[in-house]
């Protein structure tokens, strides 16, 4: 199935 | 000292309507340039980024950078005390624990003043990388809202496909399926869908409609919305706020396990 990714996987912590 | 004056309360009202369903509490980061807000929803799937330029407001001053921790529901309630056309001033002293709202009626015969307690919010700030997108679609914000609403009756997710033909939104559910396609080269006839597509590569991505529904609350801010997509990166949905700034939403895609 399709899993919802977290945004934090794509964006670095500033 | 921070003080921003809006000619009309309606912009702030609309900004709050566009954010309060995603974010309960957020820091309003005020600097000499203007007001910025960045916050993720509680499940860390989506992010809202608001930018308002001080020099495009009726008046603006902010000597020292200040982060104002705001409960968005409380601010929404206070803004409901203003008429849409009221001149609206928001103000906070350095190290203040309240934000002051002043609403002046069009005829300047009524002035209302409210104070809202500020909060300490420990928020996680993310660095959003500059991204070249494979496809950027500009379309009517009303049309986008309509499509999101219609497909939400069918399923929980939407598959967005952008290619040289246009953009297609598709949803599947237990009881059926639906697709809506908009062509990229609309006729000049009035009433055409009037979309423009900037495409370098075709893309097909899946997103949760629940979050797109929250994003469409920004439609009153702008007649147009832009959707930017690339494979395996978050969707960016942008509404311009006149010349004053923008509200951008990011939504992580659903990916096959």
Could you please describe the fold and organization of this structure?
- The complex is a heterodimer of chains A (14) and B (257).
- Chain A is mostly beta strands.
- Helix content of chain A is 0%, strand content 36%.
- Chain A has no helices and two strands.
- Chain A starts with a strand and ends with a strand.
- The mean pLDDT of chain A is 84.
- Chain B is mainly beta.
- Chain B has four helices and 20 strands.
- Chain B has a nine-stranded antiparallel β-sheet. Chain B has a five-stranded antiparallel β-sheet with strand order 5-1-7-8-9, covered by helices on one side.
- Chain B is elongated and about 55 Å long.
- The mean pLDDT of chain B is 95.
- Classes of the chains: A mainly beta (14), B mainly beta (257).
- The interface between A and B is medium-sized, with 14 and 25 residues.
Helix fraction bin of chain B: 10-25%
The count of β-strands of chain B is: 20
Beta-strand content of chain A:
35-45%
Q: How many helices of chain A does DSSP assign?
A: 0
Identify the biggest protein-protein contact and residues per side: A-B, 14 and 25 residues
- Taking the alpha carbons of the first and last residues of chain B, their distance comes to 50 Å
Note the run of SSEs of chain B as H and E.
Answer: EHEEEEEHEEEEEHEEEEEHEEEE
Rounded mean pLDDT of chain A is 84
Largest sheet of chain A: none
Main attributes of the structure:
heterodimer; A: 14 residues; mainly beta; B: 257 residues; nine-stranded antiparallel β-sheet; five-stranded antiparallel β-sheet; 4 helices; 20 strands; 47% strand; elongated
Short description:
The complex is a heterodimer of chains A (14) and B (257). Chain A has 14 residues and is mainly β.
